[in-house]
Amino acid sequence: MSQLGEKIDLRVSRTQNALQTALLTLLEKSPFTKITVHTICKFAGVSRATFYMHYQDKYALLRVCLERIWGEMNQEPGDQKEMIRRVVALTYQHAGLFKNITYNDSNQELSQMLSESMVTAMIEQLKEHKTQGDRCPVPEQILARFVSGGMAHLLIWWMMENCSIPLEEMTEHLNILAEHLKSLAMGPDNGEGSPGA
Predict the structure, then answer these.
(1) Closest to 101 measured CA to CA, from 176, 182, 155
(2) Which domain holds residue 174?
(3) What does the pLDDT look like over 55-113, one tens digit per residue?
(4) What is the structure's pLDDT at 63?
(5) Within a domain: residue 108?
(6) Contact assessment for residue 96 and residue 175, using Cβ atoms and an 8 Å cutoff
(7) CA-to-CA distance for 145 and 123, rounded, in angstroms?
(8) What's 112's domain CATH number?
(9) Which of 27, 123, 147, 161 is close enough to 97 for a disulfide, judged by CB 3.0 to 4.6 Å?
(10) How many Å apart are CA 59 and CA 7, to the nearest integer?
(11) Cα distance between residue 64 and residue 120, in whole Å
């Protein structure tokens, strides 16, 4: 790649990072429904024309931001318990942000977006487990959507309750539920043969 090409790529990366950081920072204090493209651009120090060169609208930017958050969570490998610990810790750490994403979300579009980002992260985890020899008779898409949907709604409820259940206790509750769901999906013997064999 030419030096000019590298400079353009670096400029694009910096602009996108500035816009993502601006939205994530604004979401810590304001509901997503009240944040405008104008506000994001002003905070990031870029023009509206530049914004629309990179993102179709603020929803597209939000999707990228959520992918970035979950991507950071999944940078290090971990088992099911570690993944749940990270999800709960991430929710607690960004409670204000997630609460402002789902606040006044009458058509559930943003809640769905949050759930979808969890599904994507979970499918990657399930694929990783598959390469390690874990078997599941249910397709990854189905299991990931089933678990993520319930987990997303539970965590949203927890946030709206101002995380009234302590972090460690909430993590333990989700671990217990996950173990029960794993038994349902894979069988009590974890898929290694049939019951009573």
Answers:
(1) 155
(2) 3-186
(3) 999 999 998 988 888 777 666 666 767 878 888 888 898 888 888 877 766 556 666 76
(4) 87
(5) yes
(6) no
(7) 9
(8) 1.10.357.10
(9) 27
(10) 28
(11) 12
